[in-house]
Design a protein that fits this description.
77 residues, two-stranded antiparallel sheet, 2 strands
Length: 77
Amino acid sequence: MWEHFGFCTGGFILSSFFGLPLILAHLGNLNDLNTTAEPPVLLDTLDVPLLAGWTVANVVMFAGILAFSYIAKANED
C-alpha cells in the first residue's frame, strides 16, 4: 500500500512541476508587470523569461532527483 501511495504522491509532484507554471500562465498570473504606472498593473503579454526560467529550474530539479535515485540504487547493489 505504501508503494502505491508513493507512486500517487510522486505523480502529483511530477505533474505539478510542469502543470502549475502552465496553469498560472494561462490564468495570466505570469504576465509582465508595468511598474511605471501607479499603481503597478499587469500587462496582457506573458513574461516568457519567467516561464522559461521556471521550466528550466523544474527540469534541473527533476534531473537531480533522477540522478540521486540512480546513484542511490547503484550504491545499494
